[in-house]
Amino acid sequence: MSTLLDANFITDKLRIDLPLVAVYDAPHNADFERVIEPLSHRRTCVFAYYNAWMRGQTLKLTSLNYGCQGSGYWLFGKENRERKEFVDFLVNDEGLKCSDEVMNNWLDVTLPYASKHKCLYIGPVKNTMSEYLKSVTFYVNPDQLSALIIGANYFNDGLGENPVQVPFGSGCMQLLSLLPDNDKPRAIIGSTDLAMRKYLPKDIMAFTVNPKMFDQLCSLDRDSFIDKPFLNDLIEFRKSSK
Predict the structure, then answer these.
(1) In this structure, is residue 119 part of a structural domain?
(2) Nearest Cα to 113, choosing from 189, 172, 47?
(3) Interior CA angle at 50 toward 45 and 51, to 5°?
(4) How many domains does the chain have?
(5) Residue at 97 is within a domain
(6) Residues spanned by the domain of 181
(7) CA distance 22 to 71
(8) Is residue 44 situated within a structural domain?
(9) Is 31 inside a domain boundary?
(10) Chain centre to alpha carbon of residue 108
(11) Which pLDDT score is estimated for 138?
(12) Cα separation of 15 and 138, whole Å?
């Protein structure tokens, strides 16, 4: 398993200044520093803690204290409302699908994450907790996102499934439940949920990877595009155009 130190090469070369944010499915007494929890009496979006992540704090969610109803369902499988009411809200109130039937079909095939330990930790990458690691998210600008997409395809021969996906779903789903199983390197372009974008800087997107893809990105070296003219020319152009 790669460590945070291994990621320094790619983050340095891409000028990624924002901290990487990891999701862990770990026991309730796992050893994380600077842990914070949602206020149990208040519904709070997971991404309301974005600035806390940037400050190095770790958000602890449990099957009993998960922030908002959406994260409760998609991260822990907690059904807080009837399906009909849920579909009506998503289709008629928010206009996210063209019909109840389409939304119902999508819900039928889109399953929530099944937490093993009933606890999820979202915060800085912690090397000693790598056995519990489920995803790592790079918060990046469009140029950096472009480079990460190339990096995610660097070892891909095109014969199988595209390693990078842009799935429909909530922001918390894109951190975990929409990321395919960890048997193959996979990545998601996230933070496309309109409800959570207000918590992020307007020019920042999320690139979320599973552990195997994180390993691949961390293995990129000077023989790859990371140290070649296309990327270096773009970086220099951005500097000169400021």
Answers:
(1) yes
(2) 172
(3) 130
(4) 1
(5) no
(6) 5-77+112-240
(7) 16
(8) yes
(9) yes
(10) 22
(11) 98
(12) 12
Provide the 3-class DSSP secondary structure of residue 227.
Answer: helix
> pLDDT tier at 182 (50, 70, 90 boundaries)?
low
Phi, psi of 172, deg, nearest 5: -70, -30
Q: Shortest CA distance to 199 belongs to which of 38, 48, 68, 54?
A: 48
Strands 58-62 and 164-165: unpaired
Structure confidence by residue, pLDDT tens digits, 58-68: 999 999 999 99
Residue with tokens 């395919």: 180
Q: Write the DSSP assignment of 92-152 as a string of letters.
A: IIS--SS-HHHHHHHHHH-PPP--SSSEEEEEE--GGGGGGEEEEEEEE-HHHHHHHHHHH
**Inter-CA distances, 191 with 26, 48, 153, 188, Å:** 24, 13, 20, 10
- 41-57 tens-digit pLDDT: 778 999 999 999 999 99
What is the per-residue pLDDT across 100-111, written as a single tens digit (0 to 9) for each?
999 999 999 999
3-state secondary structure of 191: coil
Tens digits of residue pLDDT in 81-125? 899 999 999 999 999 999 999 999 999 999 999 999 999 999 999
Distance CA 27, CA 53 (A): 20
Cβ burial, residue 9 (10 Å; 0-12/13-18/19+):
middle
